[in-house]
Amino acid sequence: MPQLGEGVIDWGKDGIALTAEQKRFYGHNGYVIVRKCVPESEIDRYIERFNYLCTADRSEFPFMSVMRDITLAKTSDGKDVSKITKIQNWQDDPVLFDYCRYPTVVDVVKDLIGTPSSTLCAMHTMLINKPPDTGSLTSRHPLHQDLQYFPFRPADFICCAWTAMQRINRANGCLVVVPGSHKGPLHPHAYPNWEVKNQAYHGIQDYDPSMPRTYVEMEAGDTVFFHPLLIHGSGANRTDGFRRAISCHYANDDLCRYYEEKTKSQEETDKDVMRMLELKTKKLGIDINDIDVDYSFVWRIRSRAVNGEKCNL
Ligand SMILES: O=C(O)CCC(=O)C(=O)O
After folding, report:
1. Which residues contact residue 113 at a Cβ distance below 8 angstroms, ignoring those fewer than 6 apart?
2. How far apart (Å, rounded) are the C-alpha atoms in residues 53 and 61?
């Protein structure tokens, strides 16, 4: 029997959205796939909004970050949708935030990290537009654990929802997961030993390649929910089209708290994230070195309750 979320989650009982069997699958494997979780009509709205946000005046969304693939960045005018690989931190965008609040998604997350009355916070929002690989394999995402980036705990009350916005398979770079790896420790991360690499895409250093991997192939609207210690990544996009997915990391606001302790490798990741924030806020005329800002501050200003009112995060 899984021990995750002991005392809060009843793994033997059906939840609001998941059967007991689906919940147990998550407990054993660290992920569960819910097919057709988000309707295509919603996905179409998010795609339309993504296209708008890429070209819009960004001063309306000062904290949203727009990332470009390292090999495409130099060839772009910054607003060319085809060069944008990811938009993050769109928690204040009224259209995209509907994804974080989408009732089926929220119900599944409550089944995995809370109870029907738990307050959930959206901690990190992303829409990933994986570009066709330029030949440098920079469209890959190295194997990593999301907890590496998070200064809040306990890990068992954090969960990511990642929804395919189209058919996603091995050809266009589906997610790859190592089932059961969420039961292990947080491994040391660093930049991978690749010739060219994207900023803040850190990977596990002591990865054991003999661990069996599962390729998560999905159709539009299918959603995979996964634990923040689950080892995962994604392959290169070897097709001519973009591969899109939308995701939100949730934390149970009743049970999670910010946490100061970090490993040496987390200190390096945190520095990278802080450097990115520094560049962003400089453009807004704010020097974060002039104010007393720690790493948890970055997350406090991003987190948004998806139901109820946040008290802790
Ligand atoms: O969508 C992908 O390719 C992987 C995304 C991911 O794992 C991440 O951004 O942490």
Report:
1. 5, 9, 120, 156, 157, 158, 159, 250, 251, 252
2. 9
pLDDT of 188 > 70? The answer is yes
Which secondary-structure segment (H or E) carries 14? Answer: none
Rounded to whole angstroms, the maximal C-alpha distance in the chain is 54
- Closest ligand 1 atom to residue 234 Cα is 3
Placement of tokens 């029997």 in the chain: 1
How many Å lie between the centroid of ligand 1 and the Cα of residue 141?
Answer: 6
Q: Whose CA is nearest to atom 7 of ligand 1?
A: 233
Give the C-alpha separation, 168 to 139, whole Å.
14
Distance 233 CA to ligand 1 centre (A): 6
Structural domains in the chain, sorted by start = 20-304 (2.60.120.620)
Rounded Cα distance between 187 and 207, Å, is: 8
Q: For residues 105 and 36, what is the distance between their CA atoms, to the nearest angstrom? A: 11
Q: How far is CA 267 from CA 73, 81, 273, 313, in A?
A: 27, 33, 10, 20
Atom of ligand 1 nearest to the CA of 86: 9
Ligand 1 centroid vs 86 CA: distance in angstroms?
10
29: left (phi over 0), alpha (psi -120 to 50) or beta: alpha
Question: Is residue 1's pLDDT more than 50?
Answer: no
Q: What is the dihedral of CA 160, 165, 167, 171, to 10 degrees?
A: -70
Ligand 1 lining (C-beta closer than 6 Å): 126, 128, 130, 141, 146, 232, 234, 245
Q: Which residue puts its alpha carbon closest to atom 3 of ligand 1? A: 234
pLDDT at 2 over 70: no
> What is the average pLDDT across 218-231?
98
